[in-house]
Amino acid sequence: MPINAHPDYFMAEKEYVAAQTLEERIEKLKKMISFAPSHKGAENLRAQLKTRLKKFQQQLKKGKKSGKSSRTGIKKEGMQVVIVGKTNSGKSSLLKILTNAKPEVSSKQFTTKEPIVGIMNYNSVQIQIIEIPSIESEFYDKGIVYTADVALILTNSLKNLEKIKTQGQKIIVFNKIDLLSKEEIRKTSATLQSKRYNFQLISTKTKKGIEELKEKIFQNFNKIRIYTKEPKKEPDKTKPIILNPNSTIKDVAEKILKGFSDKIKQIKIWGPSSKFSGQIVGLKHKVKDLDIVEFKTK
Prior knowledge:
Number of domains: 3
Distance between the termini: 73 Å
Number of strands: 11
CATH topology of the largest domain: Rossmann fold
Order of helices and strands: HHHEHEEHEHEHEHEEHEEE
CATH superfamily of the largest domain: P-loop containing nucleotide triphosphate hydrolases
CATH class of the largest domain: Alpha Beta
CATH architecture of the largest domain: 3-Layer(aba) Sandwich
C-alpha cells in the first residue's frame, strides 16, 4: 500500500479488486495510475502498475483477435470447472492430475500468476478445467469463478474453508489427506457431512480419491451420456451424446442430426432405461445415463 497516497487512489484500488471483467480491470488500473503518488518513493509502485496495465491490454487485444472472452482471454469450451484455493493448497498439482495441462508445480507461494487451462477426458466426455491464481493473489480473477459451471474449492484446512466464498455449484475438495491419521480423516469427513457440503477427500500426492472426484465433477453438471450403435456392430463409446435428464429418444436423434427422427423406423435400447437388452422403444421413451441406442432408418 503506497505511502501518502490520495484517498482516491485507495478507492480506485478497491474498485480494481472488485472488477470482474478484463475491461473493468484495465479501466480501474488506469484510474489507480492517475491517482498514484508522484514522489520518488513510489517509483516502483508506478512501474508495477504500468507493467500490469500493459499485460492486461495485450491480453484484451489477443482475446479480441481470437474471438475469446475478453474477461480473461479464455474461451469457454462446453462444461467448465474452475479450481479455487489459497496459495500452496495444491491447485497446480490437481490440474496436472486431472487434465492434460502441465502447470508449474512449486512449493513457492503465488507460483500461478495467470489462468491455466486443461481438458479432463472422463469416459470420453471432455470437461474444461481452469486453475486460477490463489485467492490472496493480486491476480485472482473472480470473473472466471462467477461464470464457470462448477467451482472446485480446494483446501487442506477446515478453517481456511470458511474464508473462501463462491456462488453457484461447488465441490469442496479436501486435499493432503496423506498427512492425516485415519481418525483425523474420519473427523474431517464427518464435519463436512454435518455441514451438508458436496465434498471429496483427496491426496494429490498419492492420488487417493481422484477417480471419485472425476465422477463427482461430471455428476455435478447434471447431464446424461448416451451412446449409439449401428445394427450388428459394437456401440461407439468414444463420443457420447450429452443431454439433460428426462431427455427422450427423439432428443437423441435430433442431437445427431436435425430431422433425423423422421427417418427412423425402429429403435432398440440397452442400458438403465431398458426393461431388457435390445428392447424396442418409441421416440417418446425417456433415456437414462449410459444407455445405448440403435437406430434403423426407413
